[in-house]
Amino acid sequence: MRISSIEEFPRELVPVEIPPHTVMLRGIGWDSNVYLVKDGSEALIVDTGTGVNWHVYTEIWGREGYLNGVEKVTIFNTHEHFDHVGGNSVLKDWLEGKGIKVLFAAHEVTAKTLEKGDDYVILAYSYGRKFEPGKVDIHLKDGEILRIGSLELELIHTPGHTAGSSCLYLYDEVKLMFTGDTVFKGTVGRTDLPTGNGWKLQESLERLRDYDVDFGLPGHGWVIKDWRKNIDEILGWL
To answer: In 3D, which of 153, 158, 174, 143 has the Cα closest to residue 74?
Structure first.
């Protein structure tokens, strides 16, 4: 599904603002959700979709002024799959064209896969596309902190959906968990794709349950509002 102009953008996919720092864009078609977190002159983009509809996301950011005053953007990929990383290179080009410095960040397992361009894991072929490998500037380990302006986000390695799957936890006045495809509202990411592991996913969920979270922000679908209840219900049938 490709949207050719902002006028075609579905009403339910308008930007969702989560004060004080975050904007959620619901993914179009096969795209992941795309998140923007801004603090002063720095911003974080969490996942980039397939790259098919990047122009819609950037048009919204521009129209709403979300990137006004931003000088540096870090693009973080929650895991290796193409529907979350396919827009990396085109967003980098667009941002640099605006004079904005761009860095890439990911858990070290995901970072190595993206730098290698390992399509066995990335699965670009299943979307009829090709992934363009590129340098990942920041290789994160479990528990390390990603700093965006004055904000500190904890990298939580949550293998299961893929070996490199990770979440970012923002402990702020509103506590957010960016979950990628580890956990959604009412369900989890599949584990039958390359490097997936159901037992590790269960362990990851049990670990995530202990975090104090106001809103879980998944890679697809809607916001998770009842964090522990949602995970408990999933663990009950997983």
So the answer is: 153
